[in-house]
Write a structure and sequence with these properties.
Order of helices and strands: EHEHEHE
Shape: globular
Helix content: 25-40%
Number of strands: 4
Number of domains: 1
Structural class: alpha/beta
Strand order of the largest sheet: 3-2-1-4
Number of helices: 3
CATH class: Alpha Beta
């Protein structure tokens, strides 16, 4: 189902995890796309936000053109403006560092 993006400003969520920041940000902005490289975290995100567009990919491999294409697919009447880009730090209690 395509929504209209005319009522809210568009936000892009980076390092989205399960969507903690998105819950608060979604009150003021429409999350155009949520991006994280952890498929388990994004599965949880998708449960928390069933209508969300998610992209499971390393942010270093994502282009602005790709982000805009995903947003345009969801909101055909979108004016092309991204109002905010935000990212969440890892939740220390849940993140395991490998290295």
């Amino acid at each position: 189902m395509n929504s209209t993006a005319t009522n809210k400003k568009i936000a892009v969520s980076l390092f989205s995890g399960a969507g903690g920041f998105d819950l608060e940000c979604g009150a003021s902005f429409e999350i155009g796309i949520a991006i994280d490289n952890n498929p388990i975290a994004l599965a949880t995100y998708q449960r928390n936000f069933p209508n969300a567009t998610v992209l499971c990919k390393d942010i270093r491999e994502v282009t602005g053109k790709e982000i805009r294409a995903y947003i345009r697919a969801k909101y055909p009447d979108w004016d092309g403006e991204i109002h905010v880009v935000f990212g969440g730090p890892p939740c220390q209690g849940f993140v395991r560092f490998v290295g």
